[in-house]
Amino acid sequence: MTMENKVERSWFDEVMVPCYSPMEMIPVEGKGSRIWDQEGKEYIDFAGGIAVSCLGHCHPVMVNAITEQANKIWHVSNVMTNEPALRLARKLTELTFADKVFFANSGAEANEAAFKLARRVAAERYGEEKSEIIAFKQGFHGRTFFTVTVGGQSAYSDGFGPKPGNVTHLDYNDIEALKAHISDKTCAVVMEPLQGEGGIVSPVPDFAQAVRELCDEHNALLIFDEVQTGNGRTGNLYAYEGLGVTPDILSTAKSLGGGFPIGAMLTTDELASHMQVGTHGSTYGGNPLACAVAEAVLDEISKPETLNGVLEREILFREGLAEINSKYSIFSEIRGEGLLLGAAMNEEWQGRAKDVLAAAGKEGLMVLVAGANVVRFTPSLVIAKDDIKEGLARLDKAIASIV
Ligand SMILES: *Cc1c(COP(=O)(O)O)cnc(C)c1O
Known about the structure:
Blueprint (H helix, E strand, L loop, with lengths): L9 H6 L11 E5 L2 E4 L4 E4 L2 H4 L8 H11 L12 H13 L4 E5 L2 H20 L5 E5 L8 H6 L3 H4 L9 E4 L4 H7 L4 E6 L15 H11 L3 E5 L13 H5 L5 E4 L10 E5 L1 H4 L15 H14 L2 H25 L2 E7 L2 E6 L7 H10 L2 E2 L1 E2 L4 E4 L7 H16 L3
Parallel strand pairs: 3-13, 5-6, 5-7, 7-8, 8-9
Antiparallel strand pairs: 1-2, 2-3, 4-10, 9-10, 11-12, 12-15, 14-15
This protein binds pyridoxal-5'-phosphate.
C-alpha cells in the first residue's frame, strides 16, 4: 500500500458519525488473545471485543466454519430457511430450557423481539391493560428506541422525543421495591442475571428466585437478558443455570457469534405460539453465514472442558488482580463471575477507571471499563494461561505508571 493510501485514525473524525471515541491505534490483525495494530505493536486482549470474542481472534473452528459456508451460500432471506439456522436452533433448544428460537442480528434486536413477544402474550391473554415492563436501574438492553428505554440509564434514552410507554425502573437487588410495585398490570420483568454495562453487579442471593416468584404470582413473564452473561461467560452455558432460575424468554448475542453479528431470542412452545407469520421479522435474521459461525462457536463453548476452563481462568484473574492490588491499593473489590469480572476503584480512585484503561493500552494490554469506577475484563474464554500471566504483568506496569 502506498503512503497516500494509508488509512488513518484521523479519518474517523472526518467521515464517521461521532457516536464513538475510538482509541488512537487501529487493530489490523488478531490471533488468539493477541492483537496487532497498524504499526505492528502487539496487545494482549482482556477486552474480547466487549464479551464477544469468546474463542479469541480467528479461532480455527470459526475460520473453518465461515470459509466453508462462504463457499456454499451466504444469504437467502426468510422467504426460505437454511441448514445452518436449523442446526443452530436445534442445538440451542437442546442445550437450554427453550423450545423455540428467533434469530436476530444483535443483542438489541434479540431484546426487541423479547419485549414485543411479552407485550403480545399479555395483550392476547389478558388484554391491552397488561403492558407494564419492569426493568432495573443501571440495566442495559441495547440501543434501539424500545430497548434503550427499557434500559436503566435515562442518559442513553433522553433527547429523542417521546419514548415507548409503560416502562418502570426499580433498583436492582431490591426485592421489597419489586414486591411493592409489581401488579397484575405488569406484563414482564426484564433483568440481566449479572449487570454488565451497569458496573458488574451480581444479584444478591435469592433475588432472581424472588423475581421469578413475583412474576408467577402476577402472571408476568420473566425475561433474562443474557446478551453479556450467556455463552459460557460465567462458567455456565447460560447464567440462569447457575442461578437455578429459569426465565420464560432469554435473549443472547455477543459471544454467540464469537465476533460475527448474530442474536437470538429463546422461548417456550407456548409463548412462541403467540407469534404468527408476519408478526415479527428480519431480513438478515438467521443468515447462513452467521448461523454457521455461531454453530461452530456453540459446539466449542458448550464443551465441559471449555466451561471448566472459564472457572480456572477466573481464579488466575482473581489471584493476579489481588496481587496487583496488594501492591498499589487502588481497587475496593474484584467482582463478577467467570470471565465477566470487574475491579472496582476504591474511594481514592473514584472516576479513574479510564486512566487504568489508557495506561494499560500504552503497555500493550486491552481492558474495558464499566462506568467510571470499574475496570472490566471480558477476555476470550479460552485465553492461554500464559497470556493471562503476561497481561496481568502488563497491567501491573500500567498501574505502576499512574500511581
Ligand atoms: C451489549 C448488550 C446489549 C446490546 O447488544 P448489541 O449487540 O450491542 O445490540 C444488550 N444487553 C446486554 C446485557 C448487553 O450487554
